[in-house]
C-alpha cells in the first residue's frame, strides 16, 4: 500500500486530509511539527511527503532542503497559504514536485498526489484499476459505461462520477461531505441536499429495477456500495 507522510500543524486539517488519503487507499503518517516531520522523512521510506510550509520548529523549505542534502529521494508536495510567485519558485527550486495553495478542495489534492505517484519511481506500482465489478454491476472508467447484467445504465456524468467514487471504495461508508467535495468539488453545506437528490436518482437507476440492492444509506453517516445478506 502507498505510504504518505503528511506534515501539518493544524490538527483539523491534518485529520481531514489524512482521513481522505486513507479512504483513497493510502497509508498515512502524520507529523505536527517540522523536526518530527524531518526525522520521519529521513528515517522512513515514503512514496510522497506532503509538507505545510509554515510549521513550528522548522519550516517546510528547511525540511526539503535538509532532506535533499541528505540525498532523500522522496517526492514532496507543498501546502501553503502563501500565493507569492517567489514562494512557489523557491519551493520548486528546492526540488518540490508540486505546490498547492490553501484553501483547496481535497479532490484537487488527491488528483495531484496521484499524478506525482505515477510520475516517479516511488509510484511505479501505483496503478488505479479502470474496471470495477460488484455482483452483476460493472463499471468501465475508460469507456464511461456502467451495466447491471446485460442492461446498460443510462447515467448522467455526475451520477457516473458518484457511482465511480462509491465502487472504488466498496464496503466503505462515504460521508456526505466527502461525496460533495469529490463529485461536485464543493464544501459541504448542511442546507444543500444535492447529495441526497443525486443518491436518490442514482438508486432509481442502479437498484430499483433489480432484486439485489447495492446502494445503502447509513443513517447519520453517509452512503455505501456493498452486497448485503
Automatic annotation (TrEMBL):
Q: Which residues form the Response regulatory domain?
A: 3-117
PROSITE patterns given in the database record? OMPR_PHOB, RESPONSE_REGULATORY
Q: Does the keyword Phosphoprotein apply?
A: yes
Q: What Gene3D superfamilies does the record point to?
A: 3.40.50.2300, 6.10.250.690, Winged helix-like DNA-binding domain superfamily/Winged helix DNA-binding domain
Query: What residues are annotated to bind DNA?
Result: 129-227
Question: Which keywords describe this protein according to UniProt?
Answer: DNA-binding, Phosphoprotein, Transcription, Transcription regulation, Two-component regulatory system
Q: Where is the OmpR/PhoB-type domain?
A: 129-227
Q: What's the protein called, per UniProt? A: Heavy metal response regulator transcription factor
Q: Name one Pfam family in it.
A: Trans_reg_C
Q: Which residues cross the membrane?
A: none
Q: Where are residues bearing 4-aspartylphosphate located in the sequence?
A: 52
